[in-house]
Each structure stands twice: as C-alpha cells, then as structure tokens.
UniProtKB/TrEMBL annotation:
InterPro entries: DUF815, P-loop_NTPase. The keyword tRNA processing does not apply. The lineage of its organism: Bacteria, Pseudomonadati, Aquificota, Aquificia, Aquificales. This is ATP-binding protein. It comes from the Bacteria. It comes from Hydrogenobacter sp. Keywords: ATP-binding, Nucleotide-binding. One of its GO terms (molecular function) is ATP binding. The keyword ATP-binding applies.
Length: 249
C-alpha cells in the first residue's frame, strides 16, 4: 500500500523502529464521556480544531496524576476530527532521532498530524531532550505547519525534580525548563476525590446499561477504590469488573 492511500485508510499510526505502522483498531475514547476535566477538554479541542482548519496551533503538554484522562483526551481528538483529516502518530522516545524523516513525509500531505508522546519523561543528562527541543523548534529545517506535538507526562517538568547527586544540577534544570517552555499549552490534571470518582462510575454504569442498586453500586465502587484509588482509570477498571461479574451470574 502506498503512503498516499495509507493516510486515507487509517487514522492512527505508531512510529517504531524507524517504521510508520498503521493501527487497524485504534482506541478512541468518547470526548463527551471524559468527566471533571472540562477546562482541559475545551483548551485541547480548540487548539486541535485550529490545527485541523490549517490555522496556527500550539504544541501541548498534559501533565499530572495518573489515571486522570490525559492520554484518553489526546486520543479522543480522533473521534472529533478524523473525518476532517486529523491523524495521530504515537512516537516512542527511542525513535526521536529519526523523527525528521516523518516531516518530509507529512509536509506535502493535506491531513493534519498530532505526534503523540505518551508518558514522556527524561532522566538528567538524557541527550534526547536536545533532539526533541530541536524538532519542536524546527532546527535548521522548518517544521511542517500541519504537525503538532502532544505529550503526556506524570511529571510537570518531564524529569524527576533536582536531586543532590546531579553533577550539574543547574544545567539539567534549565535544560528541562527550556523544553517545557516550548509547549505553548501546558495543562495540569489533578487527582479526583470520592464524589468525582463515584460520578464517573455512575456515568459508565448508565452508559453500559448495567442493572444494579445505587447503594450496592456505591458500596462496591468504594470497596474497589480502597486498593485502586479515586482515578478515572480506577473507575473504568471497576465498571469493567462489575460488568463481567453481573453478566457471569
């Protein structure tokens, strides 16, 4: 299959081992079902709409607690805009060095591309920080206008905070700050509380049409959260387990 038709047939890809691989069954979360992150949703939706319409758009860093919807929000953009030509390419850090090859491929295309780094982080002194910085700046080669970089990270500055053993702590600190500052949009995601967790559970149970009493649902959901916490991911895992149990019995 030629590159022209691959972008028409598929909407999601991974770039791995220097190869662009189509994903036949992409996971596309429902944008409307992502709860308690309304501000983050609106900012990312509007920025992605700008990209899709051929207007200037920023790179985006989504940072914060695990299980709060960072990756789901990025992937949900496909559900909103794939029909308008949006494509997502998941990039792995070890393939950063070959990313400029993709720029040549995308530059002449009508489609718009999000390069997606999921769970991005760097150790102090990691050379690939400089590579990513130059790719975001376009280095000596201008970056294609139809490409934006979206990254998620559990760390606000993409690295562990400074520790006393670093040889050049100041240099390492400014290195990561200057990378983070290249993301024009930086969205924080914070841990949910009990009520937010329960509201996500109720929403998902209703969506799946599961029949269970309100009090029993709350009791089981809180029992589950004791070992899994109050995150959106935990709510999703609980409902998956509940659906299995209800349908087995």
């Amino acid at each position: 299959m030629g590159m022209n038709s691959v972008f028409e047939e598929y909407i999601a890809f991974r770039f791995k081992d220097e190869q662009l691989q189509p994903i036949k069954h992409p996971h596309i979360p429902d944008f409307e079902s992502l709860l308690h992150i309304d501000h983050q949703k609106e900012v990312l939706r509007r920025n992605t709409l700008q990209l899709v319409r051929g207007l200037p758009a920023n790179d985006a860093l989504l940072w914060g607690d695990r299980g709060t919807g960072k990756s789901s929000l990025v992937k949900s953009m496909l559900g909103l805009f794939a029909k308008e030509g949006l494509r997502i390419v998941q990039i792995y850090k070890m393939d950063l060095w070959h990313l400029s090859d993709l720029y040549d491929l995308f530059r002449e295309r009508e489609e718009k591309f999000i390069l997606f780094f999921d769970d991005l982080s760097f150790e102090p002194g990691d050379e690939s920080i400089r590579v990513l910085k130059s790719l975001m700046d376009g280095d000596i080669e201008e970056r294609p206008a139809n490409v934006a970089i979206y990254a998620t990270s559990n760390r606000r500055h993409l690295m562990p905070e400074r520790n006393g053993e670093e040889r050049f702590p100041e240099e390492s600190y400014w290195e990561r700050v200057s990378l983070v500052e290249r993301f024009g949009i930086r969205l924080g995601f914070f841990a949910f509380g009990k009520e937010q967790y329960l509201s996500i559970v109720r929403h998902m149970v209703a969506q799946r049409g599961l029949r269970i009493g309100e009090e029993e649902l709350e009791r089981l959901a809180l029992q589950w959260s004791m070992s899994n916490g109050y995150s959106g991911r935990s709510a999703s895992q609980f409902v998956k387990n509940l659906e299995g149990v209800l349908k087995l019995s």
